[in-house]
From TrEMBL:
Superkingdom of this protein's organism: Bacteria
Pfam families the UniProt entry points to: DUF5906
Position of the signal peptide: none
Domain NrS-1 polymerase-like helicase stretches: 170-224
Top-level taxonomy: Bacteria, Bacillati, Bacillota, Clostridia, Lachnospirales
Organism of this sequence: Schaedlerella arabinosiphila
Record-linked InterPro entries: NrS-1_pol-like_helicase, P-loop_NTPase
UniProt-listed SUPFAM superfamilies: P-loop containing nucleoside triphosphate hydrolases
Protein name as catalogued: NrS-1 polymerase-like helicase domain-containing protein
């Protein structure tokens, strides 16, 4: 019978192979220039993947759990970086956008605990041919105001570097472009970042928990049922 692989051996292999960091008792793994949050379960799977299949059988779940606990308590891998809700920066793939100056900031050297999976390409409105064609096809009139509103919505969707939240209500006749706008917002984001919880179901605590991890919640129709937590919309401003 083969001997079990001991905790110290697994711990040393993890430290040699993976770039693991800890911040506020949360685990992060570094890929390239960016730190990404990783759950204990995901890290456990990653640790086992470092070994061949026959070796994985020699590592107990208790050993993996102890390795993760050691990582969490290791003072040398505690991180200090900028998170999504900190300061006025948006971390893109290879650049940092400074909201205060409205441009890329090449002087930011700190690590980030997140990044947006796209690059920054500066373009004036006159070069946004596809977006302008989309606006003309959806909105028959008042284009300047609706262009500004659409850009504001996209801005909220793409970045939550602050804790600001906004609700947008689209009112209009059938086939007036409401669903098209919602579909555009849905396509911008990964599927995991979008929820579709009706407003009348917001009182459900499980639904509220789902909202915590979502960047946007889309309700395709307003129901005649009683709405809960209407305080979210007390500052409704008609656009």
């Amino acid at each position: 019978m083969k001997k079990q692989i001991d905790t110290q051996s697994v711990y040393e292999k993890v430290r040699e192979t993976l770039d693991i960091g800890v911040r506020q008792n949360r685990l992060f793994i570094k890929g390239g220039k960016n730190w990404t949050a990783i759950s204990a379960i995901e890290l456990a799977i990653t640790i086992r993947s470092l070994y061949r299949e026959e070796e994985q059988k020699l590592i107990s779940s208790g050993t993996v759990k102890e390795v993760i606990e050691r990582l969490l308590q290791n003072p040398s891998i505690q991180l200090c970086f900028i998170e999504e809700t900190e300061d006025h920066f948006i971390k893109l793939k290879d650049e940092v956008f400074d909201v205060d100056i409205g441009a890329l900031n090449e002087n930011i050297k700190e690590d980030f605990g997140y990044f947006m999976d796209f690059s920054y390409v500066e373009s004036s409105r006159r070069n946004m041919r596809t977006f302008e064609a989309y606006l003309h096809s959806v909105f028959p009139d008042d284009l300047d105001r609706k262009r500004k509103l659409m850009l504001e919505i996209i801005g909220y969707v793409l970045s939550d570097y602050t804790n600001a939240k906004a609700g947008f209500f689209f009112v209009g006749a059938s086939n007036s472009g409401k669903s098209t706008v919602l579909e555009l917002v849905r396509k911008i984001l990964p599927e995991s970042a979008v929820t579709t919880i009706p407003l009348y179901r917001l009182e459900n605590r499980f639904n509220l928990a789902r909202l915590a991890d979502a960047r946007v919640n889309i309700c395709t129709e307003l129901s005649e049922k009683k709405l809960f937590l209407c305080g979210y919309f007390q500052n409704y401003d008609e656009q």
